[in-house]
Amino acid sequence: xxxxxxxxxxxxxxxxxxxxxxxxxxxxxxxxxxxxxxxxxxxxxxxxxxxxxxxxxxxxxxxxxxxxxxxxxxxxxxxxxxxxxxxxxxxxxxxxxxxxxxxxxxxxxxxxxxxxxxxxxxxxxxxxxxxxxxxxxxxxxxxxxxxxxxxxxxxxxxxxxxxxxxxxxxxxxxxxxxxxxxxxxxxxx
Length: 189
Hints:
With about 190 residues, the protein is of the alpha+beta class. The protein contains 5 helices and 10 strands. It has helices spanning about 5-20, 25-30, 35-45, 50-60, 65-70; strands at about 85-90, 95-105, 110-115, 120-125, 130-140, 140-145, 150-155, 160, 165-170, 175-185.
């Protein structure tokens, strides 16, 4: 999917889910902490928002990022080819995070693949209460930051945490960190 297709899909799906949830532009802006003007630009496909903005909108709507990017649920089994994973974050050094697949069953669920090169980090705002993240480090040593506390997660180890506090992922080591992560957001009430 190229950037224009992604922008168009996000515009279409943001309008759809805002209407589905019965939210006005002002209500979504308040709920997501994204400005009304930015939401209008996104819905008119005039901008490609940051990952942080996209996460805030998905959280406020109670859907996965994958749903906002047009990965609609199909049959019970859905195969997403590797070349259709969506790179959502990257740095000039080569670190990256790709959304591999997502679903919206009892609330949004997403599966991510991360590569963090030495010295790189990614920070996230708090997600809605009840959001949890699971991760497994297959190479390197991850510094997991949750609510201001650093936790060391070496290769072969996994971690689970409530993501309703600011959090982040950092590589303080000398080799790349490779990890997979699952995010589960509770269904919108």
